[in-house]
Structure formats: structure tokens, C-alpha cells
């Protein structure tokens, strides 16, 4: 059994325990997923305080909705879906208020790695001779990401930073796998265009 399959099976045990009245099962879910959900939301919103609030809200909603969770998708996928929708709503609320937005490309990609975001996009760019990422390159990525529309930025974060499969992204965003693939392709093309013609 793969690690992912083991995770799904263990999550289902926790769900079953919770539904049987074991409140401590939800505490275990929070312990398992808090850091992962927070990291994803923070990457989408780029603001620690708001990421904390959205993460809390995601778990509150999951707690309320878990009695109706039928297991048609993995618990983790369902939880990512809740968090992504909440982050999306928060993002558009900010956008309407013209809130100042910044991107840190020095932050680690995830909790279990020290690789910065800049290296993820450097790898995506296939930098010649594996040259060190220059500050200018990082700045151009940050500029390009800020100029992407929300759908394109969101899907690049899910694919490149969370390393989710096409199928997982399709479930989270409620779109087809084909749409996921074409949206990723368009997002990467758009990012290259916004960063400048010399981005290959």
C-alpha cells in the first residue's frame, strides 16, 4: 500500500471515529493537516494573519460539515477544497478593496523542505547551466505572478508548490483533468510572457 493510500485510509479511520462521537479524532485531523493547509493558504494570500484566520475558518467549517462527509473524495482533498474556496473569497474581497499585495519568493515551498519558491520557478524555467537564481530573476517571477489572473496563480501554486496531481487539483477546483492541464499550460505561458521574452 502506498504512503498516499495509507494516509487516505488513516484519515477515513479518523472520520469514522469522529462520526462515532470521538471528539479527539478531530484534534488529530487538525494536528495532521494544520501546517499543510496553512502553508497552502499563506502561499495563496501572502499574509500570515489572514492565512491563520482562513485556516482556522477552514477547520471550523470542516468540523461542522464532517457529519455529512460521505467519503466520495479523500478527506484531505475535501479539506483543501474548503480552504481553497475560503482563500479565494478572501482574495477577491482584498482585490475589491485594492489591498496592497506582495509575494515573498524566499519563503520555503513547504514545511518539509527549505527549497525557496524561487527555485521551483527556476526549475520550471530550466535555467541554462543550472545557474544560481539571481535576484533579478526572482523579482521578475514575483512581478509575473502578481500580474497573473487569480485562476492562473492559484493553479500554479497547487501544482508547483503543493505538488498535487492533476486529479487532486481537478477535485479541489471542481474542474476536469483536461481543464487542469490546459489551465496550467496557459498559466505557465502567461507567466513567461509577463516575465519577458527572455524567459525560456
From TrEMBL:
Keywords: DNA-binding, Sigma factor, Transcription, Transcription regulation. The keyword DNA-binding applies. The keyword Cell inner membrane does not apply. Residues 145-191 form the RNA polymerase sigma factor 70 region 4 type domain. GO terms for biological process: DNA-templated transcription initiation. It holds the Pfam family Sigma70_r2. GO terms for molecular function: DNA binding; sigma factor activity. InterPro entries: RNA_pol_sigma-70-like, RNA_pol_sigma-70_dom, RNA_pol_sigma70_r2, RNA_pol_sigma70_r4_t2, RNA_pol_sigma_r2, RNA_pol_sigma_r3/r4-like, WH-like_DNA-bd_sf. Residues 29-91 form the RNA polymerase sigma-70 region domain. Belongs to the sigma-70 factor family. ECF subfamily. This is RNA polymerase subunit sigma-24. The lineage of its organism: Bacteria, Pseudomonadati, Verrucomicrobiota, Opitutia, Opitutales.
Amino acid at each position: 500500500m502506498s504512503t498516499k493510500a495509507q494516509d487516505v485510509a488513516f484519515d477515513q479511520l479518523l472520520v469514522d471515529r469522529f462520526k462515532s462521537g470521538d471528539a479527539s479524532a478531530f484534534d488529530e485531523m487538525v494536528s495532521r493537516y494544520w501546517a499543510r493547509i496553512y502553508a497552502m493558504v499563506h502561499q495563496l494570500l501572502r499574509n500570515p494573519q489572514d492565512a491563520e484566520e482562513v485556516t482556522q475558518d477552514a477547520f471550523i467549517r470542516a468540523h461542522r460539515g464532517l457529519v455529512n462527509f460521505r467519503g466520495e473524495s479523500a478527506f484531505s482533498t475535501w479539506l483543501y477544497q474548503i480552504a481553497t474556496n475560503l482563500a479565494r473569497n478572501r482574495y477577491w474581497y482584498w482585490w475589491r478593496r485594492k489591498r496592497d499585495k506582495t509575494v515573498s519568493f524566499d519563503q520555503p515551498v513547504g514545511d518539509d523542505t527549505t527549497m525557496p519558491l524561487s527555485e521551483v520557478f527556476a526549475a520550471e524555467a530550466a535555467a541554462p547551466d543550472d545557474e544560481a537564481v539571481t535576484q533579478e530573476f526572482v523579482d521578475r517571477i514575483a512581478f509575473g505572478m502578481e500580474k497573473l489572473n487569480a485562476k492562473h496563480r492559484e493553479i500554479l501554486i497547487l501544482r508547483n508548490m503543493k505538488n498535487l496531481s492533476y486529479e487532486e487539483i481537478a477535485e479541489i477546483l471542481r474542474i476536469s483533468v483536461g481543464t487542469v492541464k490546459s489551465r496550467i499550460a496557459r498559466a505557465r505561458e502567461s507567466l513567461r510572457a509577463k516575465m519577458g521574452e527572455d524567459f525560456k
